[in-house]
């Protein structure tokens, strides 16, 4: 009886995290419903314009306690974050939702390779094999099983994966924010990223309010989905999950995101993939999980074990989340 209750409790703890993976998987499809190449920046202003006031109310007390160095550190990370969202979102409107979701999953492998390089420790051979398998999978996926070069959208999403991996490494090593309240530093980063989007929007393209007025009910529903579920809900679930379950368990559940991206892309968006492209997608999923399981375990400094556990989970939350 006690084992049954424990199992039920475990499922209840896992379900919200799994839902985050599902909504993240749907985010690429959502972007395609609310943005075109000419309205990407305006849409990003709207998306985070909805989130910032809500997150700011929650983080107000913590924001008032931030030091100058913490504000500057968060702002620097916010500039990098804006690049990630621009690359991911432009990429998502130039490729299929399925391709975008699978390619961005390479960020995990790239991050671990970067971690090994920075720590000057050779990764296990099994991990290198997983990385090679992932590259092969992406080649098959983006070429649809042929020898065609990847599309512009594929390259943009791959660039986002590279920048995201650098962002996560920087997030873990920026002393100014290592011991800062995560809620506050996330608000600073999103605020800076939104300011960047607003400036870029003024430089060209339609104004955010013009795009907002052009949206119908369906597009507003997708935009609110991106704002409230893919960003706000995802962040709070991960903050809760840090304390409710183990980082490795959360990482495993969030690792199903590309699977959900493929499910939404094929079933809702009608993406079509040839046999070899399907094989490539499967190889990316297998290689990403294999790489996660065989990656070298980082050695945190004394007294940093708890902080490292939070970074494992929160390091890829809304600020580094999929579009």
From TrEMBL:
Pfam families in alphabetical order: EamA
Organism domain of life: Bacteria
Start and end residues of each EamA domain: 17-142, 152-287
Principal localisation: membrane
SUPFAM superfamilies: Multidrug resistance efflux transporter EmrE
Stretch list, region Disordered: 294-323
Keyword Membrane: yes
UniProt topology in membrane: Multi-pass membrane protein
Localization per record: Cell membrane
Residue stretches spanning the membrane: 40-59, 71-90, 96-114, 126-143, 155-172, 184-202, 222-242
UniProt keyword terms in alphabetical order: Cell membrane, Membrane, Transmembrane, Transmembrane helix
Family listed: Belongs to the EamA transporter family.
Name recorded for this polypeptide: DMT family transporter
Native source organism of the sequence: Kitasatospora cathayae
